[in-house]
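Collaboration report, partner site 2.

Our partner group contributed sequences for two proteins of shared interest, and the home lab folded both. The records are reproduced in the order in which they were received, starting with the first partner submission.
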Amino acid sequence: MSKLTDINYVKGVLSRHGFTFSKALGQNFLVNPSVCPKMAALCGAGTHTGVIEIGPGAGVLTHELALLADKVVAVELDKRLLPVLSETLAEHDNVKVRCADAMKLDFHQLIREEFPDEEVVICANLPYYITSPLLMRLLEERLPVKAITVMVQKEAADRICAAPGTRASGAISAAVHYYCEPEQLFKVSAGSFLPAPKVDSAVIRLNILKEPPIQAADERLFFKVVKAAFLQRRKTLSNSLSAGLSIPKATITACLSAAGISDKARAEEMTMSQFAAITAEIGNWSALLSKPEVMNNE
């Protein structure tokens, strides 16, 4: 068992370096001895594999990753943790810590520089407040990685992994399923952290797809449609799309009809294929509207 899961040891190291937890950064460090070895093993870390870890905290997960992977690059935003990590990870010569903001870091460049000839996976214990924007950034950039394994709030894990077309699905569900096959790996209780958050967490793995499961003629419009559909999820799809896309409801109703979808349908009932069909019809309407002869007749 790693000494980094000994609460007294961790508190001692943090105190020695004058570190205090930041609520603004959502800092909760893992101290459950069974979680990090399991997470490291399931993320795909191994021989001939490089790992990018986001938010190493005190280094407890980093330590387990370093035992399995050829190399680990840990990206940490909080400069106050650099001396802490220098101490806790001193035994590992295959770990490099980069002080950077994961929302601004050029991950393509990092991979080219640090892992030119290795398969790469991403592993992270994400602060709750940054879960969705960071995951979408990592997916949208189409990084050359095999999988992204993250620990997130249990409620967020349920929504992210929910299959489109089911009641639990949301905009993030459709977006994630466009890029990967998500799966929940295991639940992590609130008591596994220091300090303990108010909710439980879960570890999920996003297995990156080589190609999307559906063909969207206009990818940007596809995501606009999905986002608009769920902005007012209690309303019908026709009302949500009309409001979210600023398109007359009669036009939306016609597009839905052309796609074979009832105007009484709701966003959570839509599969990926149906969202693609709706996008195609709205795209056709937009293309028709933009033709010069149409504009001249208005």
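Second partner submission, folded after the first:
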Amino acid sequence: MKLAVVILNWNGLKLLETFLPSVVKYSDGHDVYVIDNASTDPSVSFIEQHYPTVKCLKLTHNIGYTGGYNEGLKRINADVFCLLNSDVEVTENWLNPIINTFESKMNTAIIQPKILDYNHKNSFEYAGAAGGFIDQLGYPYCRGRIFNAIEEDHGQYNNEDDIFWASGACLCIRAQAFESLGGFDSRFFSHMEEIDLCWRAQNKGMTVSYVGQSTVYHVGGASLDVSNPKKTYLNFRNSLYTLVKNTHQPLFIIVCLRMLLDGIAGIRFLFQLTPKHTLAIINAHGSFYKSLPGLLQFRRQHPTRKAHSLLPSIVWSHFVLNIKNFNKL
């Protein structure tokens, strides 16, 4: 099986200096690529000078996470793409369990390893932890992370299991599956595009898996910090995009409930004296309304949709029932 490790970069020189060494060291026998999203810093010259074995694919302008990977992966010949954030430290033999699972389970199209926090290595990392799920309203959560409640790693998720979505911080996907799905939805630009991809894959009968025998460490927030209103905007907008495109449930009811909860979140930001985040939610809804005709067209063109969640509301479970641990859901 031919696997390519593919890192998307935009002005990430310092991240490449820190994390590329572990990728090169522990990906021996596999091609490593960097897709450069038209960086203006010395990223490309750094790679060419210090890591000549790493293949650098240069794009002419920054087209985000979705566009960058969609364009760059067209130029890579491999059976499996391992999409890796530039702020991820990998570990020895991290790829072997992933390859073994792909070879033994032919219906598995997408795999995520265990993702721990680079700065607190005994804790799971927010973006993916031990594999993602969503509730019936489309709100995401993870094994090891519910909203901002992060679990410590005690080996409780060292298993291999099916999940609903794999984190874009480290997402391994069969090239054939990526192509058949049409890649990422470029409307997303960044954030939650991996949830949409995984949801579409499952609507086509593919399986998404977590392999706990493989471990990576993720910094998180290197491109957009959680305090940045743009992150709030993208998360709220793209979550609605994903829900409309893929949910099997009555759309009008689900979207109305989401609008209500998003409004409550906006009011909460006001009470926290962060009105820029409230404005970001309003702008996210405005962008969603403009995109709604195209999203509904996709929904009509892809009528096969499978049930995605048994949990009615992670918001209720966490904020009302005070559940902070995945295993207590």
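Feedback sent to the partner group on the second submission included the following. The chain has two domains: 3-218, 229-328. DSSP finds ten helices and 13 strands in the chain.
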